[in-house]
Amino acid sequence: MPYDFKSNLNIKDDHLFIGDVDANKLAEEYKTPLYVIDEQKVRSNYQKLYNAFSSKYEDLHMCYAAKANTSLAVMKILEDEGSYIDAVSPGEIYTALLAGFTPDRIVFTGNNVTDEELLYAHQAGVMINLDSISALERLSKIEGTEGKEISIRVNPMVEAGHHEHCITGGPKSKFGIKEEEAVEVYQKAVELGFKPVGMHSHIGSEILESEPFMLAVETMMDIAGRVHKEAGIDFKFLDFGGGFGIPYEPTEDELDLEVFTTDIIKLFREKLEEHDLGSPAMYIEPGRFLVGNAEVLLTRVNTIKNSYRKFAGVDCGFGTLLRPTMYGSYHHIVVANNMNAEDVEEIDIAGNLCESGDLFARDRMMPELKEGDLLAILNAGAYAYSMASQYNSRPRPAEVMVNGDQVDVIRKREKYSDLFNGQQVPVRLLK
Ligand code: LLP
């Protein structure tokens, strides 16, 4: 079934509403470009996914992949919901601690980590999930790691994801250790004095079918089985990463959570039994699923240009939302001040940066656009603000959070002076 964006939006009198607030009022008051996140949507996404899994396997830890959206207020909401955190850098550990997550609710899965980063994670007291033999060896040299509980990331050789850049399993992936060396690496971890208690894998992002997940679970459970049998490891948790997709295009369908979780948990339980793995906790690491559809980016059309093609030019670019440029990603776009208008023509929606690739949409069927129209770019909650930059010396936008009829600024709009944070001009150049 194709995904009907309109029926999933809140529309009143031709206007788009976020919670109980008119998007047009938000744009007037807080200016554009503006990120608007709906608190209740984050909460309901969390509950939906959590309940779907935990109703079938109780010992479930949902570790929010913070990289999707690191706004402190968002992290705080997920903390309140009972989430755990998947952190990929000391900065994300720091953010999670600041948002109130206790260290036992944080799993650190870094890639190509330095000794300093390992030390930081160790001192912070979070679970460290090691991505290479090098990191394992280097962690063992840090004082006080004797007897430490750790986890290891394995590449289950399953490839999935919406774009080549977002595939994290398989032969080309830089993540994890080879599956055939898993037993050896766990044995080595024990020799180095660690207590390995977890195994991790993550195959990719924005996956809307269950087959790759099923394959990854099956492969990882078989690897865990071998490691249990041959290296004598008793697992406290098995972490299957994230990747749960959401519809971005009207042609896409939602993941059927009920069927999906039923199949996954059935397989998980069968494999636990087959390999005599006991009843470890199941960890998952959703990012996009929790926040992706909870936020929109409001941007105003300032220029209609009939060049060799027709363009609607807006007041932000790929520094504000990178996904269309970086991955060619489709983001559905609606006219927040004219929600009931019919689509009448194909148009390019272009950003304000000096690069030809700065387009939010090419040949998109839209209502007739006018200068002053307010566009809402949907599904801008995941990998959106967290990937924003100041390219072209354009300060990053503000972000507000709506809860019913309540609105709070959760990120102030940057000022021109913020473009120089941390910069210094050598004194000899000052005249
Ligand atoms: N766990 C690990 C180890 C990850 O690397 C990721 C995402 C996740 C969990 C969460 O994946 P999710 O549930 O959000 O799919 N910037 C790209 C996505 C990159 C994902 C990186 N890793 C995009 O905009 O599509």
Question: Care to describe what's here?
Answer:
There is one protein chain. The chain is α/β, with parallel strands linked by helices and 431 residues long. The protein has two domains: 6-38 and 292-420, Lyase, Ornithine Decarboxylase, Chain A, domain 1 (Beta Barrel); 39-291, Alpha-Beta Barrel (TIM Barrel). It contains eleven helices and 21 strands. It has helices at 23-30, 39-54, 72-81, 90-98, 115-124, 133-140, 182-191, 211-231, 257-274, 288-291, 323-327, and strands at residues 10-12, 15-18, 21-22, 34-38, 60-65, 84-87, 106-109, 127-130, 149-155, 177-178, 195-200, 237-239, 281-284, 295-306, 310-314, 333-335, 345-350, 359-366, 374-377, 398-403, 406-411. The strands form three sheets. Strands 4, 14, 15, 16, 17, 18, 19, 20 and 21 form a nine-stranded mixed beta sheet that branches. Strands 5-6-7-8-9-11-12-13 form an eight-stranded parallel beta barrel, surrounded by six helices. Strand 20 and strand 21 (406-411) form a beta hairpin. Helix 2 packs parallel to helix 3 and helix 8 (211-231) packs parallel to helix 9. The chain is globular and about 70 Å long. The chain starts with 9 loop residues before the first strand and ends in a 20-residue tail after the last strand. The model has no long low-confidence stretch (mean pLDDT 96). The structure holds ligand LLP.
